[in-house]
Amino acid sequence: MAEHRPRKFRALIRDRRPDSVPLDLRAADDLRFIRQTMERSAAFTAVPGWGTVAVGASALVAAWFAAPHLFDLRWFEIWVGESVLAVCLALVSIQSKAVRHGLPWASGPGRKVAMSFAPSVAAAAILTTSLLRAHLGPMLPGTWLLLYGVGVIAGGAFSVSIVPVMGAAFMLLGATAFLAPALGNWFMAAGFGGLHILFGIWIARRHGG
């Protein structure tokens, strides 16, 4: 009996070695690891060019409707409604482009973009509440444009190279808006409308729609 124990132990150890794992299971694990690694390191290329153009067009419409209600409650409601519409348009167009090109959008680089963009959105919400309570509505356009630009630059670090450039343009426009707060509604139109349309066309032509 004592002579057979070492053989049994050696057999158990041999069965636990990686070589004992079936080849098809090892191949599946390797492919899963490679796919996850590529998703973590890849750039987020599902940025929707034409979807960004649609967001810009909706912002121009919002600016036109908001112009007669400069910085009052109605003006604020119009732009908040526009922001909700813009988010919906962006999500639908991102998903559509991702499905069309077979790209991940809710994992890997897509998650990094969302997590990088979220802090600036939270900061904008907090500052908006404070500015409204202080009756500083004319400061909202510059604040929104500036923080949106910050978010785009942060998220753009994991996306195509033109995205951080767009963020920098928003930041520049937002900083300029503080110099002429009375024209804030038109700075909003130029930023959320004009810049989105211009960069959206660029992205659509250079990065597949």
Quick recap:
Helix content is 76%, strand content 0%. The chain has 209 residues and is an all-alpha fold. It has two domains: 5-39; 45-206, no CATH class.
Describe this structure in words.
With about 210 residues, the chain is mainly α. The chain has two domains: about 5-40; about 45-205, no CATH class. It has eight helices and no strands. The protein has helices at about 5-15, 25-40, 50-65, 75-100, 110-135, 140-155, 160-175, 185-205.
Query: Total strand count, please?
Result: 0
Q: Which secondary-structure class do the elements indicate?
A: mainly alpha
In helices, the fraction of residues equals over 70%
Number of domains: 2
Q: What are the segments in which pLDDT stays under 50 over at least 5 consecutive residues? A: 1-5, 12-17, 33-42
Beta-strand percentage? under 5%
The coarse silhouette is globular
Radius of gyration: 25 Å
**Residue-averaged pLDDT:** 81
Q: How far is the N terminus from the C terminus?
A: 73 Å
Largest sheet: none
Keywords, separated by commas or semicolons:
single chain; 209 residues; mainly alpha; 2 domains; 8 helices; globular
How is the topology of this model organized?
Elements: H1 5-16, H2 23-41, H3 49-66, H4 73-101, H5 109-133, H6 140-156, H7 162-177, H8 184-206
Helix pairs in contact: 3-4, 3-8, 5-6, 6-7, 6-8, 7-8
